[in-house]
Structures are given as C-alpha cells and as structure tokens.
Amino acid sequence: MNAPHPSHAPFAHLAGKRVLVTGATGFLGRHLLPQLVAAGADVTCLTRASSRTDHLPQGVTVARADLATGDGVAQALGGQDILIHMAALLFGLNWQDYLRANTVAAQHLAAAIMSIRARRRALPRVVLVSSLAASGPADGMPGRNDEAIGAPVSAYGWSKYLVEQILGRAAGDKLVVLRPPIIYGSGDKGLLPVFRGIQKGVAALPGWKRPFPVSVVHARDAAQAILLLCRKDAHGVYHVNDGAQHTMRAFYEAAAQALDARPLFIPVPVPVLGMTALAATLWTRLLRRLRRASGDRAPNWNLDKYREARHAGWLCDASRLCQELGYAPTMSLAAGMTEAVNGYRAEGLL
To answer: Smallest Cα–Cα separation from 226: which of 161, 157, 173, 180?
Structure first.
C-alpha cells in the first residue's frame, strides 16, 4: 500500500488558481503546501506577524493578517479563487478557549466573505478542514458517514461544528468540509508525547479490556484529500482515512516498530483517565491564575480530550471521497509511521 506519491494530474484543477491558506505554518501545512505548489497553484499563506515563515516552500507568498482581530483578513482574501481554512486551536482548557480561537476566526473569515458578496464579486471556494470530532464517536464499521448529523462530545468538536455553520452561512454552497480523524506524520507536535513515551518504553491505552477502534490518516493523504475538495464538483461534508480500521494498540505498535522500541502497553481504566485529565487541567489552570505559565497553551492531555477518549471508538467512512473524487490513500500505517519517526529524528525531537 506504500504507493509512490500521487501524480499531479488529479490536481490539474488547481493550475493557475489563487489559493489562500490559513494555518499553513502548522503541521498539516508543511505537507499541503508542497503539493499545492506542485499542482501549479498561486499560493498565499495568511500568517500573523509573529509567525515564522522561513520554512515555507519557495514561491509561496505571505500575507500578514490576524484571525483573532480580523485585521488584514478581508484584504488577504480579496481576489482569491480558493480559501483553505486549517487554522485552529487543538488543545484548550475550557469552552471559552475554543470559542475564542476557532469560532472568532471563522466569524472574521465569514465577514470577509460577506463583504465580497456585498460587492457582487465572485465568491471563493471555501475548503474547511474540520474534524471527526464534529461528527462524533463511532465504534462500529463503517463508522460515521458523510450524511450523519454532527454529534460532538467535546468542546473542541462543538467549536469545529460551529465553524462549519458560521462559514456555511456566509459561503453557502461554496463551502466544502473535510472531517479527518487522527492525522499523524512528521512535524506533528500533538502526538509527539506519545512517540516519546513509546520510545521510553511505555504506552497507555484508553480503557480497560476494550479495543478502541480508530480511523487514522497520514498528513500526506489528508493533504491529497484537501486538494481534491478544491474541485468544483466537491460538495458537502467528506470524511477521510487511510482505508483501514485500526485499534489504538495497533496504532501504537506501528509507532513502536518504527522506533524499534518494545514498550509496555498499560490499559488505563476510564475513571483513571478522567482523574489524570482533571489533574492536568486543574494544574494548568492554577498556573494560569498564578501567572507562572509561559503561555496559554493547554496540555495535550486534558479534560476535553478525555471527553473524547471515554467513548468506545472513533471510526469514519471515506467511501464517498473515494467514489466521487478519486481519493486513494498512498500511505500505509507502517510507512506513515516510518515517515513520522524519520521526520521527528531529523528535527532532533526524538
């Protein structure tokens, strides 16, 4: 299943298109931008003034704007054919964190889109990278499908679902949504603690005597799906995965194999998961209150992530993406883990 990188013919629809990307300096952006450039798109990355941009691919333009305040957003979006919105807060301590970051950014983008509509200009196609968290959990095959009503169980999931509604009201049928499951690959700081734990010989499994089935996708294939959603015939909500069902243990075992590690797998009962998440959340809140924290970032494991982990599984169905748009995953779990580990090592993170 470790096929060569997909040819650029399926992405001919992007040749010459002006594409504005938010969240481009993050993990997924490093896998998406090279594919956009190779497809012939004229790419602009919307970044804050404080963001590093020296690692962006050659030929990419930078537009300085602030999604938190809206400054510069309308100017950056003007004249673009496609908006790919990936910027999002992944780890928050409470509902306010997610609402402040994710939905406020969506409101500013929606205002910019409505301004274009008011001037009777052509609206850009809006490709939103949402999350399976907006669909809700599922522990049986084939998992959550594209027609299922959103049923989030976490603040993060609800914030992503609200973003879909906000942009949908502004962009109408110009909006198309991708709801990916766990995305992994080189450059991902969210799963880095898991890889480090496995390297040290410990892997904690969510729940006692339960398989916890999950869908996953490598960032390279998630990027492929985003490019396909830029097509004019893409519509509605799509899910994406690597074409297989996994358990969380199998996911960790693949990471261990790539690391050449032999970790001890420790099943953690759901109540214990809740207590550890509560402790991590309360400790960070205390640090915030005492102003000892170096920033507002929440720990990777917190109460909101526990709200997702306490469910029996997270599966999704990518069949419509495959049938309608020709999506075909290129990275097996083993190959994807090797790419991720090699990337972490190249950056000195493992």
So the answer is: 180
Domain parsing of the chain, residue ranges:
9-191+214-250+314-346
Digit-coded pLDDT (tens) for 45-98? 999 877 777 788 888 999 999 999 999 999 999 999 999 999 999 998 888 889
Tell me how far apart the terminal alpha carbons of the chain are, to the nearest angstrom. Answer: 26
Residue found under tokens 């499994």: 205
Q: For residues 252 and 145, is the Cβ–Cβ distance under 8 A?
A: no
**277-280-286-290 Cα dihedral, nearest 10 degrees:** -150
| Beta strands in 169-223, from DSSP E residues, in sequence order | 175-179, 182-184, 202-206, 213-214, 216-218
Segment 243-253, tens digit of pLDDT: 999 999 999 99
For residue 196, give the nearest of 27, 347, 21 by alpha carbon: 347
pTM of the model: 0.93
- The Cβ of residue 219 has, within 10 Å, a number of other Cβ atoms equal to 25
Domain 9-191+214-250+314-346 in CATH 3.40.50.720? The answer is yes
